[in-house]
Amino acid sequence: MELRHIRYFKAVAEELNFTRAAEKLNIAQPPLSRQIQDLEQDLGTKLFIRNPHKILLTHEGELFLQYANQILDLVNRSAEEVREVKEGLQGTLYIASVEGYGPQFFAETISSFQKKYPHVQYNLWNGNSDDVNARVSKGLCEIAMITAPYNKEGFEVLPVHQEPWVAIFPHDHPLASNADKPLMPEELLPYELLIPSRESRKSEIDRWFSHTGKAPVIRGRIAHMMNAYELSRHGVGVAIYPASISHMIKNNEICIRQIDHPDAFASYALIWLRNHQLSRTAEIFIEHVKHQSLKPSHTGLPG
């Protein structure tokens, strides 16, 4: 059995017509029929049911088609990887990320990855965790960063960072009087809050207040961190976001205090589809993340 036999079989199995398959392969029909007969003889079984007006796959033919597809896919990937070894890693890496720590992480990681693989290009999309999850599930990107809680069903999950939640507000806000101290959740009860739009965030933040027997007042649920920052800066409410929001602060124009609660931490992870063949570029990028020398995670707080 030769590789061409498998390619010929696949063409006939897809077309279910020897004439069309021969045209697709750019060969004459009689030689194609002989090649299929040789393959059937090698396997010791019929792969097709030949009728006057049409052909059908036998049960054995359907099984062999599954293996033929796997063999040809492996051959094609192997050829691509050999070319990449010779020519250097190429292609486009499709990435999706949440806000917060995501942009910083990918900027730092892509910068170091690019030094090793300068021909790789990048397509980076931003959204909330639910949208990012959906984008990976639909195959619109290969690698993504999300925040906990993680949906592990069907995904590989690689934790990469953790940072505290913080409250931000103008300098003339009453909470600014103790700006150098952590903020207890109950101190937030008199004020209206701006929180992320992801549904699980509301439940998570509510748990910080469970010991008080009271629920926080939510003024708004904001999808994008920049919008929450600007609303808070203009006194619309106290924004509750992961500490990486502090990277938006310019010239000390707003006050920031860390939330003092054991569960008030945001965890970030890379995800990709489980049992799915990633591109060689994506596989090497993940290995790069796993093995690069990362500095200890910092909180993202200024100072």
From TrEMBL:
The keyword Transcription applies. Keywords: DNA-binding, Transcription, Transcription regulation. Residues 1-58 form the HTH lysR-type domain. It comes from the Bacteria. Gene3D superfamilies: 3.40.190.290, Winged helix-like DNA-binding domain superfamily/Winged helix DNA-binding domain. PROSITE patterns: HTH_LYSR. InterPro entries: HTH-type_LysR_regulators, LysR_HTH_N, LysR_subst-bd, WH-like_DNA-bd_sf, WH_DNA-bd_sf. One of its GO terms (cellular component) is cytosol. One of its GO terms (molecular function) is DNA binding. Pfam families: HTH_1, LysR_substrate. Belongs to the LysR transcriptional regulatory family. This is LysR family transcriptional regulator. The lineage of its organism: Bacteria, Bacillati, Bacillota, Clostridia, Lachnospirales.
